[in-house]
Amino acid sequence: MKKILITGALGQIGSELTMTLRERYGAENVIATDINKNESNVVYSGPFEHLDVTNDRDFFNIAKKHKVDTVIHLAALLSATAEQKPLLAWNLNMGGLVNALEVSRELDLQFFTPSSIGAFGPSTPKAQTPQDTIQQPTTMYGVNKVSGELLCNYYFNKFGVDTRGLRFPGLISYVAPPGGGTTDYAVEIYYKAIKQGHYTSYIDQGTYMDMMYMPDALNAIIGLMEADPTKLVHRNSFNVSAMSIAPEDVEAAIKKHIPTFTMDYQVDPVRQQIAQSWPDAIDSTCAVDEWGFKVQYDLAKMTEDMLWHLNKKWLGEKVEKGAI
Ligand code: AKB
Asked: Is 30 among the domain residues?
C-alpha cells in the first residue's frame, strides 16, 4: 500500500481509517472518496473526490487520475437499512463491489473490502463459529456479504487480483457514529450514558454479538493488507472479534464509571431478529495464525476509553484521564 483510494470515506470506518492511513503513508497518498461531502478533516486534510461507487467510469477515472495502487472499498448499506431497502442494498452493495473489483483488475491494484458476522445465518454454529462453516444468511445484507466474499475469491483465482477482507463484528467508536446497523446499540449506549444517563436498548438482554473497538479494527485492516501473501490460506473473509457481549454487559461496564446510569428495553423486532440470526461468538484463530491478528481492547478497557473521549468531546479539555 503506497497510494490508496478509499470509498465511503466519510462513514464510520472510513472517517478514522483515512486519517490513520494519512498519518502512516502521507496525506497526499490517501485519496478519500464519498458520495457525500462534509466539513470534516477527511475532506480537508488530503485529496478528496466525490464518488458514487455505482458509476463505474467515474470510479475508474478517479483511480487512474491519482495513480493509486490500492482500493479500500467501504461504501455499503448496513444490515438494518438493507433489510428496509433490499433492492437498493443489492444495487449499491453488489454494484459498488463489482465496480471496485473491476477497477482493481483493470489497473492491477491491491484490494480490501469488509465482510461481516452478517455473512452467517441461523443454521451456522453459534458458539466459537469456525472460519469455514455453513453460510446461509436470512438477510439481504448477509446475502450481499456471502456473495461479496465469493466474488472477491473469484477475482483472486480468475484474474489474480490481490483481494483481502475481514468479517467484521459490530465496530464501536467515538468519532463517527455508524448508521443503519444492527450492532449500533453498542455505540449509542455510550453516547446516551453521557448525555442522558439512560439508554433504552432496541436489542434484548441476553442477545450476544461480537464487537470490536475501532483502533483494533484499523490495526486489523493494516495488518492484513501488509501480511505476507504466501502465508494467507484464506483471503477475503477472516473471522475477527475482540469480545462477545450482550446489552447488559455494556450496562454493567458503564456503571463502573457512571453508577447512576440506567437502562431499559424496547425491543425492535426487525433488528432483534437479525441479531438472533447471527453468531454469539466467532472464532478468530485463522486470522491469528495466518497474519498475526491481535486486539488491545476488551470491554472494560474500551468502555474506559470511550467514556473518556466522549466526555472530552462534549465537556472540553477539563477532564483528566482516569477521572471517568
Ligand atoms: C451491522 O450491524 O450491520 C454491522 C455489521 C455487524 O456488519 N455493524
From this structure: yes
